[in-house]
Amino acid sequence: MIFETLNDILGKRTDSQLAKDIKATVCEDADVLGAYDLYLFNFGPEKDFATIHVEVSDQMTAPEIDALQRRLMVSVQKKHGIILTGIGIYSRNTGDSEVARMYRAVKEAVLAKDYALQLHGFYADLQSKTITFDLVLSFDCDRNQAVDEACALVKKLYPDFTICVQPDVDISE
């Protein structure tokens, strides 16, 4: 009983299976290419809320994204009783084979490191020569050092590009 009270006060890690189930529900939608960064919040009995990021084609329009967000909110509420209060959008380059090759090369180089658990939200802008992505890091690494190393790895592959790595943690699984 003391532990339950402390968990309620201090917080506890999200149920891993619930997180996986919610992400699976979100990924059932044909327009979703991936689901990441799920945060669950509980404010008492039947007061569960969540935020999530989804990856979609860079060809989607704002009205299509709006419709997608509304479908996802309804789907998660019906299946899990959780209200999605925010859905962030990652745009995936889907129409450019050069960017697809870049993504594979970056992913292979970065995920070869022990500290790198997942790479998502990858976007390469060939005009501005910018590469951005989120990197899920192990809890036991030096975050600043890991981000610096990941940037250096990608910069070595694409020296003319500006590299932006957003460090991330996996709190839901």
Describe the structure.
The chain is an alpha/beta fold and 173 residues long. It contains five helices and six strands; from the N terminus they run ααββαβαββαβ. The protein has helices at residues 2-10, 16-27, 62-80, 97-111, 143-157; strands spanning 34-42, 48-57, 83-92, 116-125, 130-137, 162-168. α2 crosses α3 and α4 (97-111) packs across α5. The longest helix is centred in the middle third of the chain and has 19 residues, at 62-80. The mean pLDDT is 90.
Percent in helix: 40-55%
Secondary structure class reads: alpha/beta
What does the main sheet amount to? 3 strands, mixed
- Tally of individual helices: 5
Provide the β-strand percentage band: 25-35%
Number of strands: 6
Main traits of this protein?
single chain, 173 residues, alpha/beta, three-stranded mixed beta sheet, 5 helices, 6 strands, flat
Question: How do you describe this structure in short?
Answer:
This protein has helices at 2-10, 16-27, 62-80, 97-111, 143-157, and strands at 34-42, 48-57, 83-92, 116-125, 130-137, 162-168. The protein has 173 residues and is α/β, with parallel strands linked by helices.
How are the SSEs placed, and which strands pair?
Layout: H1 2-10, H2 16-27, E1 34-42, E2 48-57, H3 62-80, E3 83-92, H4 97-111, E4 116-125, E5 130-137, H5 143-157, E6 162-168
Parallel strand pairs: 2-3, 5-6
Antiparallel strand pairs: 1-2, 4-5
Helix pairs in contact: 2-3, 4-5
